[in-house]
Amino acid sequence: MKLTKTLLATTALTVAGASAHAQDMADSMTLVSWGGAYQESQHKAYVEPYLAMNGGVTATWDESSAEAVAKLRAMNEAGNITWDLVDVVASDAMRLCDEGLAMEIDHDELLAPAPDGTPASEDFGDLIVSDCFIPQIVYSTTFGYRTDMVPAGTEPPSSVCDVFDLETYPGKRSLQKRPIDNMEWALYCDGVEKDDIYDVLSTDEGVDRALAKLGTIKDQVVWWSAGAETPQLLADGEVFMGSTFNGRLFSAIAEQDQPIGMLWDMQSFDLDGWIVPTGLSEDRLARVLDFLRFATDTQRLADQAKYISYGPARASSAPLVGQHATLGIDMAPHMPTDPANAGNIHIYDYEWWADNRDDLDAKFQAWLAQ
Amino acid sequence: MSVTTDTGPVLSADGKPLKRSLNKALRAQKLRALALIAPLLIFVLVTFIAPIADMLFRSVENQIVSNTMPRTTAELAEWDSDTSELPGDNVFEALYTDIFLAAEAKKHTRLGSRLNYEQPGVSSMFRSTGRNVDEIGEDQIKALEDLNGAWEDETFWFTLMTGGDGAEGNPSLLKQQAASLSNLTESVYPADIGFVPGQAISDLLPQTASAYTSFALFSAVDNGDVVAEEEPWAAVKLALIQDLRSGVDLSSYSGPGAAELAEAQDLATSLPPVDFKAGFIDIDEEWADAENWTTIKMYSPDFTSGYFLNAVDYQKTPDGFAPRPEDEQIYNTLFQRTLFMSLMIMGSCILLGYPIAYLLANLPMRTANLLMILVLLPFWTSLLVRTSAWKVMLQQQGVINDTLVWLGLIDEAGRLVMINNQFGTIVAMTHILLPFMILPMYSVMSTIPQTYVRAAKSLGATNWTAFWRVYFPQSVPGIGAGSILVFILAIGYYITPEIVGGTTGTFISNRIAYHISSSLNWGLAAALGSILLVAVLVLYWAYDKIVGIDNVKLG
Amino acid sequence: MADTANSDAFVEFERVQKSYDGENLVVKDLNLSMPKGEFLTMLGPSGSGKTTCLMMLAGFETATHGEIKLDGRPINNIPPHKRGIGMVFQNYALFPHMTVAENLSFPLEVRKIGKSDREAKVKRALDMVQMGSFGGRRPAQLSGGQQQRIALARALVFEPELVLMDEPLGALDKQLREHMQFEITNLAHQLGITVVYVTHDQTEALTMSDRVAVFDDGRIQQLAPPDELYESPENSFVAQFIGENNTLEGTIKEIGEDVCLVQLDDGELIDAKPVNVSKVGDRTTISIRPERVEVDTAKLGDKAHTLKAEVMEFIYMGDVFRTRLKVAGKDNFIIKTRNSADQRRLQPGEQIEIGWLPRDCRALDAV
After folding, report:
1. Which residues belong to the signal peptide in this entry (chain C) (predicted)?
2. What sign for the dihedral angle of Cα B381, B385, B391, B392?
């Protein structure tokens, strides 16, 4: 009798203790990312160490970043947010923040300072493009080409405009099936000054001009919509040149040893980072913020660069970028942020595209369908 | 015994009409039957009918404009968009209140995105305005706050607006503001938020009372704060200045803050008037563009045909409907292409599937079972894998081209383009949808006894005549069922055309997916989807008229 | 057995064999010859090879060995549609998507017969089966008997000389079946066509046919006119298969020209006509029809052998009495006696003596 009572009391205490803890911090998280090598790098660099430190916590990945805005809107309408932390590109983060679907963050309060004490907001600097956005990496969309398909006696391509030069570099190209970046490259290679690109593109004549330039290579273009397509097309020899994310090209070149070269010219810079959805319960929010503080510190961001060639978003992480986790090569020269690579870059105008995307997309799609 | 008369209804033993007794007896049965199918019925309603209804609704729904800017759209009703002159100050003043509230609720960018579908540039106009709407009347508010620190004091404001303890309240104003605000925020406002505007002050300063009430509701419910502990928005203070400038007579007012009000009125009348129009144009000069205003006015009604017009390459103009500019027309092309390619796929499924189904139905059981497994095999592999396999087969450096080059049928330079075009989509989708054609054909054919063909032959028909005059007509219901199945599946297909379709082999569904997940233009996606749904229903109806739907058999 | 290589024969099977799997013969060494105008029935239990023979004749199955001739021409390599044989199928096989008239006009159309001719022939054929007003209906709107008539009309409309019928009456009820049996034989004789008719119903076979071929185990066991088949079965199978029959097992004790003495297994002696036995000591099965058993042994004469029997059961069937006896240790010996005024009703338990004329009892091969 007495033993039973003691047992019961102990059990009750344990249960109470567990539930008290659960109220503090949820013990599971749903993280949303892009899948593939990128998600793997996040898992290795932040999630595995975090789970090792916090026994009993589980993390689930959802590969839905491509539709994050649509799905968050739908969840918000349904009043049931199932995601805890979402990896999105900067333009989506701005959109989510504007619509109140992402939580505004006090970067200095919630994120760890740099090891030397620099507050997070300074460490991230300009990359905090939205109050809701916690940057992780800088990536770029750039061109790769088949080194063995360069015509004999010709220098390999070195400029983005070689994409439009079918005489010197015959063969198919792969481009992303959207107007962003392609329109800018077309105007740039049609002789528009870099600073004037968006002014020109704001006029109907400018749009026509860009499409006309793209039209010169249209029948040689394979249009892609998933990031993995260009590396595959290059590996198969289906295309001679193609645009994709620099990390994908890096793994095709360095990890898979494909005969592919990379262009560092007019590559389109972009950011990727976390947002926290609004409307999380207190315990889930507490868990997410705890994870976020860990996952975005200087060392963790530097660690991620071991697995993928995207530049860490913190200035303080740059010196810590070391060697590839398995290949043992220095990663710094493969980062889009490396000064040697960032000689001539294109920074795309989020605001301009937010205004003109619907319109230009209709024109672009109509042009494609012709 | 039933009693019958010549004229009256047939009665049952207890004298009630027989019909009613029968209905009563049947009702229990009907109820039981209904109870049995209820789970399925509810499931179908929730997962199928309701989403479709929601989709149909979204394709015409446009309440976002009037919900987000109720005051502006009301004022805009007076404005004549043909004059190409900007709307008056009253509209801009209403716009200030609307945008201020919308920015607090973070709804202004969504409205911006909505209107941006119709007018490029509106999106950033709303975003930048939401960010900077505080700048309007900044100087006047600063002067007010400099005049007396009380105007920055939350307790003073609370007392002023309630009229102090025991003052007569004005709950109808609270109710009215809650109704208007809940359209915007979609929050539910309880009757008791710890604040009721005073009757006296709401008579005296109507704009201020309304603005403060909105603020109180928003603070208490959406922010979860205590009203009395929050300093009011700039919009409230600006409303006060506007009220005071309108020349209210404060002399009879003796409630809390009478002295401060009198002092503030002296200041307000001495200050330059708040120029809302200039303020907005300062923030974003797009507000000076009458075209933007035309768009807002055109899309003010709660329901719009805009999405449907857009879905058929038309647009709304102040003069009615007009075709969209030629370089933006795409949907008609896509609809035609979708129908054409679905028919092609259906046709090739019939051609390829018929002989296989015939074999299946006429081979001995053992062989037929093996063949059936081969037919079903594609079902057991992922759709993506199958589509990707076609990529490997059809691409220029792919298996088929390699074989043709190896055989010497084509040279290196003449490799065939078989993918990223209509051909690739038709090939891959025919392969994927083939089982849906074969199975109904097979199940119909297996019910046709061999004796019919034998009878035909014994009557003197050649093999071909026996097939064509006797066997084929009996297998038509299977072709019909398979065709409907394949066509309807094909018309809504998305993944395969996306992967192997390139630019000329994509379907309307790819644009629908784009508008659902990327451009977030759900209204347009819903309109396109509704048109597709109607197209399918029309074709189904046509099929019924021409062939007869009872000629469709799945087995 | 059937005679082979008859020069007058219209339909001939010569040493025909058929195997589906290369291991078992379904039809074993079939020889058959029938003259023009004959109504021949193939009768046998299912799996006896009768339908296979019909299908070979129609051309839907090919003979593994041997030759089939029609009007003197070998037809083994002629496809079914060129054989010009009319056929009525078990389930009628009326084309469901055509009207009755279209069904009938189908064989005429494929023979490229002109429209007016066609219409006249269809009308005549429909009238022939008393279905003149049904031309516009679909087969599904007809009753079983009506469908049967249409099937018959369709098989006859193109005036074939040979018509095959594969259990055409199997799906009809008894009364209708009897009526149709009569109509079919009438038509056949009227038109002077040759008919090969397959059935497993012996009454049908006996009532309709000029000759009946009894099939078993892939062979024709006996080919004879109905009365001969019934009264003089050549072996135990035929005796058993056709009509009701009593059998007793025994050994030949004496054998003569027209009569032999059989010792039954319980030792009793009885007379029989030797048919399938050759010498003393052969095992035999004697076969006697129930209506040929004599209860009044005084009528048989003094020299006749008789058997003791015990009455087991008496069944009153109206026109006849059916009595079950226990004879020679077997209790399923049936006798039928006419319900005449002087006929005694046997009581169960009664001990009686039975006997028969030697010519009525056939000593056949032992089973």
Report:
1. none
2. negative
List residues in chain B touching C: CB distance below 8 A.
Answer: 449, 451-452, 454-463, 465-466, 469-470, 473-474
Residue where a domain stops, chosen among C195, C213, C236: C236
Complete domains list, chain B, with CATH: 1-58 (no CATH), 64-134+287-298 (no CATH), 139-273 (no CATH), 331-551 (1.10.3720.10)
CATH number at residue A94: 3.40.190.10
CATH of the domain at C52: 3.40.50.300
Mean pLDDT across B62-78: 93
Burial of B190 (0-12, 13-18, 19+ CB in 10 A): exposed
| pLDDT tens sequence across B362-411 | 888 899 899 889 888 878 888 888 888 998 899 999 999 999 999 999 99
> Looking at the complex, does the CB of residue A66 fall below 8 Å from at least one CB of chain B?
yes
Task: Choose, out of C98, C106, C158, the residue to mutate when testing the contact with B (most B CBs < 10 Å).
Answer: C106
pLDDT in tens, C105-161: 999 999 999 999 999 999 999 998 889 899 999 999 999 889 999 999 999 999 999
Interface list for B 178-237 with A (CB within 8 A): none
Contacts of C111 in chain B (CB under 8 A): 460
Instruction: Note down the domain range covering C32.
Output: 11-236
Q: Does C90 touch chain B (CB under 8 A)?
A: yes
- Indicate whether C1 belongs to any domain: no
For chain C, what is the domain count?
Answer: 2
pTM metric for this prediction? 0.82
Q: Which two tokens stand for residue C120?
A: 């006249």
**Rounded Cα–Cα distance for residues C87 and A316 (Å):** 96
Q: B221-263: per-residue pLDDT in tens?
A: 988 899 999 999 999 999 999 999 988 888 888 888 899 999 9
Range of the domain at A190: 142-269+345-369
A241: its two tokens:
């040149």
Q: Which residue of B has its CA nearest to C158?
A: B459
How much is the ipTM here?
0.86
Contact B302, B183 (CB under 8 A): no
Chain A CB contacts of B124 under 8 Å are 351-352, 354-355
Token reading at A258: 């494909």
The neighbouring-strand residues paired with A102 are A277
